[in-house]
UniProtKB/TrEMBL annotation:
It comes from Loktanella atrilutea. The lineage of its organism: Bacteria, Pseudomonadati, Pseudomonadota, Alphaproteobacteria, Rhodobacterales. Binds 1 Mg(2+) ion per subunit. The keyword Transmembrane helix does not apply. Catalyzes the specific phosphorylation of the 3-hydroxyl group of shikimic acid using ATP as a cosubstrate. This is Shikimate kinase.
Length: 226
């Protein structure tokens, strides 16, 4: 499977697929088949994923960790838009920001997200700024469902304060910068179809359970056939 590279080249990208059933699903999707995903969760419930679940929210909210856990539980592919951009550009997000600027990155981000949304149902983790673009929100609404992982500001700061991979926090006062970004973005994240409050000290498994329970309220997204 291919995406258009950041610099106009056709570039292969990797998809993390958890098992042989998911690999077969991806092959059928690539051949144009209309497919859904059926799996059983830990309680034995038969679950059908009908549309892509797109995780949105602040840096440090747990999109990647929860996305991988959901992918494993539902036996569907996990995709990360930031990782796909880095692979296509052969550079980190921070390097792309420094070299080409944020507007360039956001344009390429939108291109990648649009392509990742066209495959079979999967779990898609997006960068913290991706949902701010109206075009991205529209594409996500057409092809999947947005789930906002709403983590409190103090938890976000605890998670990102010692990491140097966040280009937007490379300021004289990163904590104040994070607070400003949080305030600016929260009203936009609130436009997501589904919201989950991320609790302090909640494990990945507990948060994943909560997301699954939330998704089960939407039979057009995740249907329990038990």
């Amino acid at each position: 499977m291919f995406i258009y590279g950041l610099f106009g080249k056709i570039t292969p990208f990797r998809v993390t697929i958890r098992n042989s059933a998911a690999r077969g699903l991806r092959r059928r999707a690539n051949q144009g088949a209309d497919v859904t995903v059926t799996t059983a969760d830990q309680s034995g419930a038969r679950l059908v994923l009908r549309r892509t679940v797109v995780l949105v929210g602040m840096m440090g909210s747990g999109k990647t960790a929860i996305g991988r856990a959901l992918s494993h539980r539902l036996a569907v592919p996990f995709l990360d838009s930031d990782a796909e951009i880095e692979t296509a550009a052969n550079a980190s997000i921070a390097e792309i920001f420094a070299r080409d600027g944020e507007p360039f990155f956001r344009r390429r981000e939108s291109e990648v997200i649009a392509r990742l949304l066209t495959g079979a149902p999967c779990i898609l983790s997006t960068g913290g700024g991706a949902y701010l673009a109206e075009g991205n929100r529209r594409a996500i609404g057409q092809h999947g469902v947005a789930v906002w992982l709403n983590a409190p500001l103090d938890l976000l700061w605890d998670r990102v304060r010692h990491k140097d991979s966040r280009p937007l926090l490379r300021t004289a006062d990163p904590q104040a910068t994070l607070a400003r970004i949080f305030a600016d973005r929260t009203p936009v994240y609130a436009k997501a179809a589904l919201h989950l409050d991320v609790r302090h000290r909640a494990s990945i498994e507990e948060t994943t359970d909560a997301v699954l329970d939330l998704l089960k309220t939407r039979k057009d997204i995740l249907e329990d056939l038990s």
